[in-house]
Amino acid sequence: MNSKEFSLIIEDLVKKHRDMSYMDAIIHYCEENNVEVESAAKMLTKQIKEKIQFQSQKLNLIKGPKPGVLPG
C-alpha cells in the first residue's frame, strides 16, 4: 500500500464517521488491520498531516494560531 491509498482510506473513514477525527481514524485503521501506528505515520500524505495539525490546534492539543482567529 502506498501513501495515496492509505490516505484515501483514512479520508473515507473520517467521511463515514463524522465524529471521528483524523487521529482516531488512523488509530482505528491500525487496530483493525494489525498495523503499527509508527508504520502508518510514514504513509501519511502532506494533506493528511495538515488536517491533523488543524484539528489538533482547534482542540488546543498543540500550540499554534487558532483557525479563524487573528493574532493580536
Protein model, in words:
The chain contains four helices and no strands. It has one domain (3-58). The protein is 60% helix and 0% strand. The protein has helices at residues 3-16, 22-32, 37-41, 46-58. The model has no long low-confidence stretch (mean pLDDT 86). Helix 1 (3-16) crosses helix 2 (22-32).
Q: State the share of residues found in helices, binned by percent.
A: 55-70%
Structural class call reads: mainly alpha
Number of helices: 4
Please tally the β strands and state the result: 0
- The rounded Rg comes to 13 Å
Which consecutive residue ranges, at least 5 long each, have pLDDT under 50? none
Q: Helix and strand succession? A: HHHH
Main beta sheet, described? none
Count of folded domains: 1
Summarize model confidence as the mean pLDDT.
86
Shape: globular
Intertermini distance: 44 Å
Strand content: under 5%
